[in-house]
Structure formats: C-alpha cells, structure tokens
Design brief:
Blueprint lengths: L13 H12 L5 H7 L4 H4 L3 E2 L7 E2 L16 H35 L11 H11 L8 H14 L1
Length: 155
Amino acid sequence: MTTLREIKDITICESTAELLTKGRADSVSTVFDRADDIKPCPIGAQQACCKHCYMGPCRLSTKAPYEKVGVCGATIDVFQARGFGRAVAAGTAAHSDHGREMAELFLSVAKGENTDYQIRDTKKVYTMAGYLGIATEGREFNDIAVEVGEACLAL
C-alpha cells in the first residue's frame, strides 16, 4: 500500500475533507486511496489499447504506432479517437438529466406554476426562441417562454 496523501492535497471542500478524515479513522478505503494504490497500465495510459469489440482487445505500441493496426484495421489514432468519443458520450449522457430538469423548471416558471424563481434575462429567451425557430413578433413574453421550454424538452 502506498503512503496516503494528505487530505488537504485531495480536496479544498471542508465537507469532503471531514468525510475523508472519518473514513480514514474508520479504515474505509476511498476512491482516492485506491487510485493511489493502483499502478496504471502503461498501454492504457497512452490510449494504445482498444476494447470496443470482441475481436480484441488490441494493443499497439506507442514507440512504433503505425507499424501495426488492430484486428479491424484501426490505427492508434482511431483507438484514441474512439476512446475520447466514448468518454464524451458517456459523460454527456450521465448529465443529460440535469438539462432536462432545468428545462422542466424553466417551463414551470414560464407557466407561472413555480413562483420561487423568475426569468430575469428576457434577451436570452428571445435568443433561444430565434435558435429554435419560434416566432416572437407580437407575442406575450410568457407565451414565448412556454414554447421555448416545451421545445427544449422535445429536443
């Protein structure tokens, strides 16, 4: 086991520091401890491996990256692009519910169902309406805002 990093080197958040301190006192292994304990795969750290299909996994050398290709013909550039693309898609998908919740909140405010919040930047709503192809001429602001909210939920 490696030497544990000081908590102040892990986080500046007081609540997190408190939980990490308690975890250590209770001998609980945290993600930070386990990450420090595991030696990363040198091939994976250089994104020179591919596990995207069941013909592999394929491993290429970063010392001579274009000497070989994967079973499917992918070069190291393709390995890295696929890995990056999948990471972006996974991260985006993991947080798409936040956008939906914001759109639902926006719509409830626009409809007057939620009075805890208000729409203060009307210019942004008009800008969004333009992006979404929503007519604004001669319409009440709240009607436009409702349509913007509904359009955002439909995306």
